[in-house]
Amino acid sequence: MKPPFEDVVRDYIRLVYFFAKKSLSQQDDIDDAVQETFLKAMKAYKDFKFKSNGELKSWLLVICRHVITDMFRANKNNISIEQNNIELFEDSDVEVLLEAKITHEEDVKKVTSALKMLKPAEQEIIRLRINEEMPFCDIATALDSKEPAIKMRFYRAIVKLKESLL
């Protein structure tokens, strides 16, 4: 059964917000992208058929990616693209990722630094898989890639992360 659209907004606004934040640096641009994503989703929601919440997440992220692309095309000079590695992880996210309690501030800084050394695309895959608990097939759909490629990039990123922490 399809949940009311208000529940979809409540449940997924954080995910869409952070997805937009990875590409945009100005708060106004991020807010516009999130608002436009949910407006487009609301218009198409009655016709959208999904089998799982994972498909719903992927659908919203695909819409958001298209909105951001449209923003770039329409306003090349007015949209601020984040040029540096984007801090996609909070300290609590890092703890979940490593499935360990990091109690020293120095350890937290070391792990955060190691995460920032990964490519932004690798950071996003790790965040979607670990923090958002998305299955690989849904991540692949959201990032317009193939599932085996997403799995490989995820595991390679984890290996890089572990190596940099040793």
From TrEMBL:
Highest rank taxon of the organism: Bacteria
Keywords, ordered alphabetically: DNA-binding, Sigma factor, Transcription, Transcription regulation
InterPro entries for the chain: RNA_pol_sigma-70-like (IPR039425), RNA_pol_sigma-70_dom (IPR014284), RNA_pol_sigma70_r2 (IPR007627), RNA_pol_sigma70_r4 (IPR007630), RNA_pol_sigma_r2 (IPR013325), RNA_pol_sigma_r3/r4-like (IPR013324), WH-like_DNA-bd_sf (IPR036388)
Domain RNA polymerase sigma-70 region span(s) in chain numbering: 9-76, 114-163
GO biological process: DNA-templated transcription initiation
Record GO terms (molecular function): DNA binding; sigma factor activity
Family stated for the protein in its record: Belongs to the sigma-70 factor family. ECF subfamily.
Official protein name in the record: RNA polymerase, sigma-24 subunit, ECF subfamily
Organism: Candidatus Woesebacteria bacterium GW2011_GWA2_44_33
